[in-house]
Amino acid sequence: MSNSIRPLLVAALLLAPTVLIAQESGFLDRSLRVDGTDHAYQVYVPRGYTASRQWPVVLFLHGAGERGNDGLKQTQVGLGRAIRLAPERWPALVIFPQVPQGESWQGAAGEVAMKALQATIEEFSIDENRQYLTGLSLGGNGTWYLGYQHTDRFAALVAVCGFVGLGDRFPSFLSAASTDPYQELASDLVNKPVWIVHGDADRAVPVEESRKMYEALHAASAEVHYTELPGVGHNAWDAAYANAELIDWLFQQRLD
Predict the structure, then answer these.
(1) Is the pLDDT of residue 115 over 60?
(2) 4 pLDDT band (50/70/90 cuts)?
(3) What are the phi and psi torsion angles at 195 (to 5°)?
């Protein structure tokens, strides 16, 4: 390059407008290594995300049908589908961990979910007073479980067609000596805002599971909302995650 051209190039670069790299948005692949095993999960980043403000964060727990290790299937049912249909309703970071086949949210998968939540908080600009927990079916059970294990962490819980225990098929995670696991769980969550959704025609998870949990929370004077969907079977999640009143209520909840 000649000496006469070099000063012109430098001047052009100095006068060029600054190029801003936009934050990637949508469903992003993430992975955690825990005890020597890689766990794939997804993080939804809303369009317009910027680190200059703090954002709410939602931890979503999928149902039994989305178990696996592909790291994708859990975004296709429930909250992931609702976000794709109406992203403007969900101005938040949303985390989609995945349970391996044959397992549940109790134990190792729940621990991975919480680690994914913490990793998201460290990577993005998060309002830690607005952390929310929700799940459907098996994930509804996971919502009660992780809500119980991490009572002070979440600003609100949304349990969709969930259950505390299903007898020998799926014993309660609460004390074996407990004579009333619903009352025991309600005592732990008494200061936690909760919204429960269930279809009254659900054959997979009896609606009585949600009714009993609502009654126990109500008796404990907790802030609890209950939506029972007439004639709806196990798929209560499409209605739950499209409910504008529920969504607005959720994002209004804060720890402080």
Answers:
(1) yes
(2) low
(3) -130, 125
Contacts of 233 (CB under 8 A, 6+ apart): 199, 201, 202, 203, 204
Q: What is the spatial distance between Cα 190 and Cα 150, in angstroms, rounded to a whole number?
A: 13
At a CB cut-off of 8 Å and minimum separation 6, what does 198 contact? Answer: 160, 161, 162, 205, 207, 209, 210, 211, 227, 228, 229, 236
Q: pLDDT exceeding 70 applies to what percent of the chain?
A: 91
Contacts of 101 by beta carbon, 8 Å cutoff, 6+ apart: 67, 68, 69
pLDDT at position 204 over 60: yes
CB 127 within 8 A of CB 40: no
Query: What letters, b where the CB count within 10 A reaches 16 and e where it falls short, cover 22-40?
Result: eeeeebeebebeeeeeebb
**What 3-state DSSP class applies to 26?**
strand
The whole-angstrom separation of Cα 250 and Cα 224 is 12
Give how far the C-alpha of residue 58 lies from the chain's centroid of Cα atoms, to the nearest Å. 4
- Dist CA 33 CA 175 (whole Å): 31
> Please, what is the end-to-end C-alpha distance for the chain in angstroms?
62
Indicate the domain borders of the chain: 26-166+175-252
Classify 26-166+175-252 by CATH class: alpha beta
Higher pLDDT, 172 or 16: 172
pLDDT at 6 (0 to 100): 56
Look at the chain and count its residues.
Answer: 256
Dihedral, CA atoms, 235, 237, 238, 239, nearest 10 degrees? 100
Whole-prediction pTM: 0.90
> Where do we find the tokens 């009143």?
245
